[in-house]
Amino acid sequence: MSSKMQSSNNIAQARRTVQQLRVEANIERIKVSKASADLMNYCSEHAKYDPLLMGIPASENPFKDRKPCTIL
Amino acid sequence: MSELEQLRQEAEQLRNQIRDARKACNDSSLSQITAGLDSVGRIQMRTRRTLRGHLAKIYAMQWATDSRLLVSASQDGKLIIWDSYSTNKIHAIPLRSSWVMTCAYAPSGSYAACGGLDNICSIYSLKTREGNVRVTRELSGHTGYLSCCRFLDDSQIVTSSGDTTCALWDIETGQQTTTFTGHTGDVMSLSLSPDSRTFVSGACDASSKLWDIRDGMCRQSFTGHVSDINAVIFFPNGNAFTTGSDDATCRLFDLRADQELMMYSHDNINCGITSVAFSKSGRLLLAGYDDFNCNVWDTLKGERAGVLAGHDNRVSCLGISSDGMALATGSWDSFLRIWN
Predict the structure, then answer these.
(1) Largest CA distance in chain B
(2) Percent over 70 (pLDDT), chain B
(3) For chain A, what is the domain count?
(4) Apex CA B124: angle with CA B122 and CA B125, to 5°?
(5) Rounded to two decimals, what is the model's pTM?
(6) Across chain A, which distance is largest between two alpha carbons, in Å?
(7) In terms of CA atoms, which chain B residue is nearest residue A64?
(8) Would you say residue A22 lies in a domain?
(9) Does B288 touch chain A if contact means CB atoms closer than 8 Å?
């Protein structure tokens, strides 16, 4: 590749980088305190629907230990 | 000043702008906000089922949306569809290439997909009229290995690759609808947002990126990890995601605050994380490690709440069923375990 092509590639790449950084720089951000509070609220609202968190009574567990059958 | 030099300066200014904007929002921490919250206590789970049948390392698994069936992929060259309740194998699908690294189950249950070192994402129809399973499409175009794939629906799938790109495919035509470029290292994992409009990717460049599926743009980039990111998963409400890395940490990133909120690590943990998943409420973070264990983390407080030991080799993949009832882990020991 000629050095002219190489340098125009570098410029094209640099332009793309700047363009991308502009997109990322311009987003709206919220405070960490609000983001954290929202996560905490989501978890607490949905806790009762979380079987692994609340525990699963054996009668409702589709994976409860299978007992061996006795043939009478 | 040359144009190149000007552009480099502008890039530097923009990076500083992002850094300062993030700092300005950093008014507290997740730990501080949750300081008064009760901890989850000790989380103990038992192995309820062991799925035996693969003859070599398991590399990937995904639950079907019915929370009962699941698909696993092994380098024994097989994709197996299991009934996790009975441990029966519904299908054992021989693969054209045994070097599989990922698999996926379509939300409808009608298709499965897999791929790996063949650079191809193969789509399998599970509900053919003849009753057998066959390849319906081979999606080729990636110039590197297929590390992860996830169905949007029966006609669209998103893939990530060792060629540093991700792609959205139209399964019907076999073409890439959209290519997602920007990572500078192998992309190892992806996770679709709950509303299917975006996805996050994690790569060997130690960064994770949020992508808009429709327009192909990278909306946000996150740094922090100091080594390859192997796994990413969205938090259930779509406002945050967690990554797992070779640097022995998992990290929680918030999309709206545009920064890292928590790191999950311990001095005793010195090995890489291969896989991550959230429990239904998001309160628990499950992570699979190279040291054969799974750790259960309290997402909000950053504390370890439990350890799941049982595999005899690396935990390579894991997933929680959509009804939140069970965790499935897959390992290099060739077994899958179902825990709750």
Answers:
(1) 71
(2) 100
(3) 1
(4) 155
(5) 0.96
(6) 89
(7) B48
(8) yes
(9) no
As a residue count, chain B comes to 340
Domain presence at residue B23: no
Q: How many domains, in total, are found in chain B?
A: 1
Q: Which domain holds residue A24?
A: 3-49
* Cα atoms in the 13 Å half-sphere on the side-chain side of A47: 14
**Shortest Cα distance from A57 to chain B (angstroms)?**
11
Rg of chain B, C-alpha, whole Å: 20
What token pair was written down for B267?
């001095």
Q: In chain B, which among 216-275 make CB contacts under 8 A with chain A? A: 217-221, 235-237, 239-240, 254, 256-259, 261
Q: Which residue has the tokens 């504390």?
A: B303
Model confidence pLDDT, tens digit, residues B44-103 = 999 999 999 999 999 999 999 999 999 999 999 999 999 999 999 999 999 999 999 999
Cα B29 to the center of its chain, rounded Å: 25
CA distances from B299 to B18, B25, B42, B201, B262 (A): 26, 21, 14, 20, 8
Amino acid at B75: Q
Q: Which residue of B has its CA nearest to A57?
A: B340
CATH number, domain of B303, equals 2.130.10.10
At A53 the three-state DSSP class reads helix
